Amino acid sequence: MQETRRQFIKGMAIGAAALALPVAGRSWAAQADAVRYGGSAWLGHYPAWLAIQAGYFKAENLEVGWESFGTTSARVSALLSGNIDMAVTAAPAALAVMSRGSRHFAIIGVPENFGRVEGLIVRSQVARLEDLKGKKVGVTFASSAHLLVLNLLDQAGLKAGKDVTVLNVPAPELPAAFQSGQIDAAAAWTPQFNAIRAMPDAKVLVDDTSFSLYKEYGVTPGPDVLVARRAFLDKNPEAVKRFLKAYFRANEQLKTQPDATVAALTELTKLSPADQLEMVKGADWYTAAEQGALLAPGSKYIDGLQKLAEMMVRYDQIDKAPPVREWVDAAYL
């Protein structure tokens, strides 16, 4: 059965109830300069991890605790239930919660654009999207890659389920499915993206830069956004400003000194230094100076997120498109 973001939201409600319980052995300082961050090994969390490891938060008199989550739903649930204060999440997950009217969080920053490390990988005989007709495409449902596939098929005049068989394959299983021939094409993000494209007879047909919203708005199918609990923002405005100062200091390093970030990041990702450097260089890291233009009223980027929400409605991922600007708060930059 296809998993939609409606099911994702239900799962978060259950997860939030569980996460609201006390966690044995966890102790957070009850003070304004303590921040609880929810992360994972995904590249969207590199700035926060790097800022911790490099001491950038400490330089701003902040104690930032790192809480790892295996899934987006668990991380967003923890944010909504108050178990963490800040996190990076894929915009579709945030949009799904917004569509239900939740006002418990705000978008306060944009870490990066990862358009070149997610895409559709095919076998050599597939030269264009139209050649996918009659073939099997593997992708993880309710993901950014899933939105990419649906949008690409639209662009090619093909319909999922009629012209192309779209199969729900968990991200870690995509390389094996492609290698064994169970699927003819795979839509994936790094590191599975890197693993599949390195296989014999495999090539990247398109990446996220072919997404219909990318050229006009600079928005990929699942852009990352930095979000924070509104209650935390209201109570600790100065701490949030210091957090963002340190956070974007790390982003500046990722952008201008990628080699210098590798040693700290491999501790998180367990990648080889060469693969780690490729991951860092594969994203466009936004600096503090760029945040105002990204989040300002009337910005193309927020317009793009609104269009993304409308697209999710069209693809039956959410019931209605929320007014995205009402969740954007650039006051702390």
Automatic annotation (TrEMBL):
One of the Pfam families matching this protein, by short name: NMT1
Domain SsuA/THI5-like intervals: 45-260
Annotated compartments: Periplasm
Keywords annotated in UniProt: Signal, Transport
Source domain of life: Bacteria
InterPro entries, sorted: ABC_SsuA_sub-bd, SsuA/THI5, TAT_signal, TAT_signal_bac_arc
Signal peptide bounds: 1-29
Chief place of localization: periplasm
Keyword Phosphoprotein: no
Family: Belongs to the bacterial solute-binding protein SsuA/TauA family.
PANTHER family xref list: ALIPHATIC SULFONATES-BINDING PROTEIN-RELATED (PTHR30024), TAURINE-BINDING PERIPLASMIC PROTEIN (PTHR30024:SF47)
Descriptive protein name: Taurine ABC transporter substrate-binding protein
Lineage start: Bacteria, Pseudomonadati, Pseudomonadota, Betaproteobacteria, Burkholderiales
